[in-house]
Amino acid sequence: MTVLNSYRTGPDERGHFGIHGGRFVAETLMPNILALEEAYRAARADPAFQTEMDSYLAHYVGRPSPLYFAERLTEHLGGAKIYLKREELNHTGSHKVNNVLGQILLARRMGKQRIIAETGAGQHGVATATLCARFGLDCVVYMGAVDVERQKPNVFRMNMLGATVVPVTSGSRTLKDAMNEALRDWVTNVDDTFYCIGTVAGPHPYPAMVRDFQSIIGRETRVQLMEQEGRGPDSLVAAVGGGSNAIGLFHEFLDDPNVEIYGVEAAGHGIASGQHAASITGGRPGVLHGNRTYLLMDGDGQITEAHSISAGLDYPGIGPEHSFLHDVKRVTYIPCTDAEALEGFQILAKLEGIIPALESAHAIGKLMEIAPTKPKDHIMVVNLSGRGDKDIFTVAEHLGGQV
Amino acid sequence: MTSSAPHPTRIAARFKALAAEGRPGLVTFITAGDPDGETSLAILKALPGAGADIIEVGVPFTDPMADGPAIQAAGLRALKAGQTLAKTLAMVSAFREGDDATPIVLMGYYNPIYVYGVDRFLADARAAGVDGLIIVDLPPEEDDELCLPALKAGIDFIRLATPTTDEKRLPTVLRHTAGFVYYVSITGITGAATPDAGRVSQAVARIKQHTDLPVAVGFGVRTPEQAAAIAAGADAVVVGSALVDAVRASLDAEGRATDKTASSVKALVSDLAAAVRGVRRQPAA
After folding, report:
1. Label partner for B259 (CA 20 to 30 A): which of A400, B139, B175, B192?
2. Catalytic-residue membership of A118
3. What is the mean pLDDT of residues B129-142?
4. For residues A142 and A120, is the Cβ–Cβ distance under 8 A?
5. Is residue B17 part of a domain?
6. What's the CA gap between B64 and B44, in Å, rounded?
């Protein structure tokens, strides 16, 4: 294998991270994708764009998000010193808003008045609806009919914010099908519509652009840890669905050779059961939704249905940069079952007074396994990507209680 | 400019014959394995006799992001009945036993081919008698994946040009296109809006300034009247969702084929062919 000088230089000019990524879209969309790439390049080079971003991030989103020493969780697990990056304290309740702000400001620069988005748990949909309300843009959110049912609070929030939520009844009626439907909308309304993708997937330049907008998580973490500990982290842990919160934390540290990095995939009922959403652990490279990446599929290349208790992780693919980081063995991807995530959910609530999103609870679930194996001077940062208010119905159902 | 295969292909021969007849062609689309393998093969075999000049065979995929509800549902029916890419190739082989002239173009998405293995697929497709490929999610930017290997293997790679393909981009789209150019008449998914015949014929004229290849027009063409109107301004017209709808309408309550399935598709194709064959074109300049 070639030894890389840096893990942070991707993608190449054609959007490839190793064999992954690319631009696998219908011709109708290609001119739009090229225009988006050009507009993003121009925005990046424009200090006024960054200034505008920084201002909204500080005063509207509420950044920087705290880096919090989880003292009781650390004591309980008896190993690594655990810090939580509190992305759940952002406006709208998750890390999703970091990316949406960037894309909406870009859409405004491009003169697009209509915004479409896909959503799984509804976190990205809520963030998109929020910023569309703030800037007076039309907003249509595609959401699988199954997810509409299991994430009702977020559907209500999106409606309150003035967005139109379209329940998607095709296929498995979850995130993958919401993305298909959003792409069909975009092909149909290509002139006036900006597709605000919620994760580090899709055709180039989305994986790189969304990563750039989320990388503020890792940059803040480095500064905050330096202030609190006088040094950098020893390990990072984050849940991975498409992988935007994870890459947001990881990217800053990819070239720090001593930092161990763990991406936690949703293992549903367990990898052996076949009912999971762990694309790297249980999938193979394939092409879907504009990029090549690890996918869950059968021997004929047909995409199979993912399963996770968490709607936000219930997707049969993963961002192409994660697939690359797996191939080059820079990041270790490990599976976490529904049951382990539920344990993580409860322990964080009881010990730290923080109710995590079920997505983030997967990171906590695996943390409980990794942290005890580390010495007490080992500093571990976990991305607490979202808050769990939206999940109380699902959790109650699984724990046999009632809301 | 545009590539040409070393030997005259079935597609080139068919367009030459159409030009000699002074009429546009009818391209029909069916989904392979819809509603089941046996019925689908029976439909396929009946198409040339009913007046189809070129046949597009849809390769089912779970996530057809450029297709409307009709073709989405047809693909899922086929997959449920056990259709695979290997079975689709076998279906083309079976068709070729009785028809060595009608061009067959496979239309679909890249993942099943990528998973099958590009080299193995091209060898098997060539052996089965496949003449061309339309792969919706492979734009010119990804030509290394399948387009260039297909051309090398002697299979035409047919590109989609769309209303969003402007003058600047058109040469890129046409560069490695072979067989014919497929003009997508609307911005949208298959079977959706109705195209405007006048605007379509202008777009076809624009494309023809950049290529000598024939131009076929599809997406949203449903009735014999629409087919004739669109065909008047193009070298061929493609009808897909309407045929797939005819399959669906013929099924019983459990979604199984009936004795009407093949005959109703055949009847619709006959009507479409009669309308398209009534259109006279100027001999090629």
Report:
1. B192
2. yes
3. 97
4. no
5. no
6. 22
CB contact under 8 Å between B111 and A286, yes or no, is yes
- CA-based nearest distance A228→chain B, Å: 47
Do the chains contact at B142 and A24, CB–CB below 8 Å? yes
Q: How many domains, in total, are found in chain B?
A: 1
Residue A144 token pair: 């699988």
Asked if residues A318 and A21 have their Cβ atoms less than 8 Å apart, the reply is no
| Sign, Cα dihedral of A119, A123, A126, A132 | negative
For chains A and B, count residue pairs whose Cβ atoms are closer than 8 Å: 119
Find where tokens 């449920």 sit: B80
**Which tens digit of pLDDT belongs to each residue from B82-120?**
999 999 999 999 999 999 999 999 999 999 999 999 999
**Domain harbouring B33, CATH code:** 3.20.20.70
Query: How do residues A193-248 score in pLDDT, each as one tens digit?
Result: 999 999 999 999 999 999 999 999 999 999 999 999 999 999 999 999 999 999 99
Any bridge partners for residue A168, and if so which?
Answer: A144
Active site residue A385: yes
Burial letters for A285-313: b for 16+ Cβ neighbours within 10 Å, e otherwise?
A: bbbbbbbbbbbbbeebbbbbbbbbbbbbb
Nearest to A288 among B63, B163, B192 (CB): B63
Are the CB atoms for A210 and A199 separated by under 8 Å? yes
Note whether B88 contacts A: Cβ–Cβ < 8 A: no
Residue B190 domain-assigned (yes or no): yes
Question: What are the beta bridge partners of residue A260?
Answer: A235
Residue of A nearest to B139 (CA): A27
Collect all residues of chain A within an 8 Å Cβ-Cβ radius of residue B162: 26-28
Q: Is the bond into A375 cis (omega within 30 degrees of 0)? A: no
CB-based contact A289 B63, cutoff 8 Å: yes
Work out whether the CA dihedral B60, B62, B65, B69 comes out positive or negative: positive
Say if residues A65 and A90 touch (Cβ distance below 8 Å).
yes
Cβ-in-10-Å burial (0-12, 13-18, 19+) of A35 comes to exposed
| Domain range for B60 | 24-276
User: Which stretches of chain A drop beneath a pLDDT of 70?
Assistant: 1-3
pLDDT at B2: 44
Supply A241's token pair: 């669905």
The amino acid that residue B186 corresponds to is I
B83 and B106 in contact (C-beta within 8 Å)?
no
Asked if B68's CB is within 8 angstroms of A303's CB, the reply is no
Q: Cα–Cα distance between A252 and A250 in angstroms, integer?
A: 6
Burial, B101: exposed, middle or buried (Cβ in 10 Å; 0-12, 13-18, 19+)? exposed
Tell me the C-alpha to C-alpha distance, in Å, between residue B277 and each of A36, B21, B23, B225, B274.
44, 10, 6, 12, 5
- Interface confidence (ipTM) of the complex: 0.95
In a domain, B127, yes or no: yes
CB < 8 Å to A171, chain B: 62-63, 76
Residue in the structure block whose two tokens are 């296109």: B177
Using an 8 Å CB-CB cutoff, list chain A residues near B138.
Answer: 24
CA angle A393, A396, A398 (to 5 degrees): 110
Confirm whether B5 is domain-assigned.
no
Q: Ramachandran region of residue A179, left (φ > 0), alpha (ψ -120 to 50) or beta?
A: alpha
Cα separations in angstroms, B50 against A195, A338, B30, B240, B270: 43, 55, 14, 15, 5
CA distance A398 to B150: 51
A184 vs B161, B164, B189: nearest CB: B189
Mutate to test the interface with A, among B31, B63, B166 (most CBs of A within 10 A): B63
What kind and span of H or E run contains A44? Answer: helix A30-44
Q: What pTM was computed for the model? A: 0.95
